[in-house]
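Re: that chain you flagged

S.,

Sorry for the slow reply, it's been a week of failed gels. I finally had a moment to sit down with the sequence you sent. For the record, here it is as I used it:
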Amino acid sequence: MPTTMMFLTKKIFGERVKAPRKNGAAGDTRGPAPAARAFPSRTPTKDEAMTTTSTAPDAGTDGRCEYTITRVFDAPREAVFAAWTEPERFARWFGPREFTVVPEQITMHAEPGGAWQVRLLSPEGGEHPLGGRYLEVCAPGRLVFTTGDPGNRDGAPASVVTVELGGVADVAGGTRMSMHQAGVNTDPAHARAARDGWLLFFDRLAEHLAGHPAGEETGR
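Prediction finished late last night. Pasting the C-alpha cells below so you have them in one place:
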C-alpha cells in the first residue's frame, strides 16, 4: 500500500508528501496528530471480481503512460456521479482503508476550470495532498479532471482522468463505469501501482453505493 500511495501522491498526482508530525514534538503547537480511522479489510466476492476489468499500463515514448479500469456497480449513474463530486460521499471511498479523509477538508468546485483538493492522513500522521482541476463536468455521464498539472514543463508527474458512466443492460438500475487515466512523466511500474490502488478504492466505492459506507462492517 505505501508504494501505491507514494505513486498516487508523487507520480500521477505530482504532490509532495509532508513528513508525519510526532505528538509532543518540540515547537509543534498543533496538538496531537489526528487518530487514523480503522477500516476493516475485506476480500472482494467472486461476483464483484467478475464486474471489474482493467488494461495493462501502456507506455509511450514521451513519458506518458495510460490504462483503463471498467467496473459495474449496482447503483444508478446519479449516485455514482455524486460519489465522485460530493465531498461527503467522496471521503467515504477515496484512499486506502487505513487512511483518514475529512470531508470538511475536501474542495470540489465541480465545473470546468474548477479546482479539487483532498488531503489523506496516513496512520503515521503523514499528509498526502492530492488535487487538480476539472476539465469537463457533464452530470451524470462524464467527468474529466487533472491530477497535478499535465502541461507543466519541469517534468513533474501529473495525469488526466476520464470517468464515463453508462447503463447496464443486464443490471436494472446499474451503472458501468469506465475510468481512463493518462499519466505524464511516469513509467509502467508506477502506473501499475496506481491502477492497483484504484482497484482497491473502487471496492470501497462499491460498498458505499451498496449502502455500506466504508469503515462499517458490510457483513460480507
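What I noticed first: Residues 40 and 215 are 7 Å apart (CA to CA).

Talk soon,
D.
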